[in-house]
Design brief:
By secondary structure, the protein is an alpha+beta fold. The chain folds into two domains: about 140 residues, Jelly Rolls, CATH 2.60.120; about 60 residues, Arc Repressor Mutant, subunit A (Orthogonal Bundle). Helix content is about 40%, strand content about 25%. The chain is built from seven helices and eleven strands. The strands form three sheets. A four-stranded antiparallel beta sheet has the order 1-8-3-6. Strands 2-7-4-5 form a four-stranded antiparallel beta sheet. Strand 4 and strand 5 form a beta hairpin. Helix 1 crosses helix 2, helix 3 crosses helix 4 and helix 6 crosses helix 7. The protein is elongated. The mean pLDDT is about 85.
């Protein structure tokens, strides 16, 4: 990596405790790689072992699967600065449950387990930041499962939309997955989701186009 690459890494929360020179020293002692991927290129197949902690430097990738009918489901879309593999790298069962695919051109930093351990020994804050990532992902999964099993479709949909509005910083939400994929994530049929969206539109709680949903103020 070049000097400016190390500077770029220190701007990410995970590496905030390091100086560029510290990263350059540590990266020089343990394996890592930076790889570029083209649109729709498979980075990891479902069932493949996780051997690195990955940081998305540029572009976006999705975690996806195909059901028995051949329908594509995108469980999550990650963007620059996001990580994946943190919950798998040190696990006994360290195989990817979903296939990881680049959404467009993407650049990914792959950190070996040895390098992750070296970074952890160098700064405890790195370990704290990594544990926070693992905890946040576990909490997100737990919350999603709880919501799906204890709330109505209407409640789950509004919870999802409010979270997306908060994340995107706008009441106009640009959908990063299709409505069919959203229905799959919420555990319902596409027709049920469409019916609920129509009811919420009629109640003036939201409005929508093909690629956006606008949540009314106060909802």
């Amino acid at each position: 990596m070049q000097a400016n690459d190390y500077q770029r890494l220190t701007e990410l929360p995970l590496f905030s405790s390091f100086s560029p020179s510290e990263l350059e020293r540590l990266f020089g002692k343990q394996p890592y790689s930076i790889r570029s991927y083209t649109r729709d290129q498979v980075i990891y197949l479902s069932g493949e072992s996780c051997t690195s902690l990955d940081i998305l430097l540029e572009g976006s990738v999705s975690l996806q699967s195909l059901d028995e009918t051949g329908s594509l489901f995108k469980a999550q879309v990650l963007t620059a600065g996001d990580t994946y593999g943190a919950t798998l790298l040190f696990g006994t069962s360290n195989r990817f449950p979903l296939t990881v695919v680049s959404e467009g051109s993407a650049e990914v930093l792959h950190l070996s387990k040895a390098l992750v351990l070296a970074l952890s020994k160098e700064h405890s804050l790195f370990t704290e930041n990594l544990l926070q990532i693992v905890s946040d992902k576990a909490y997100s999964l737990s919350t999603s499962l709880t919501n799906l099993t204890s709330k109505t479709l209407r409640e789950n949909l509004l919870t999802y939309l409010r979270e997306e509005a908060r994340t995107q910083g706008s009441q106009i939400i640009r959908l990063r997955i299709t409505k069919k994929e959203l229905a799959y994530r919420l555990g319902v049929e596409r027709t049920s989701l469409s019916r609920t969206l129509a009811l919420l539109r009629d109640e003036k709680i939201l409005s929508f186009t093909r690629n956006t949903i606008t949540v009314s103020d106060g909802q």
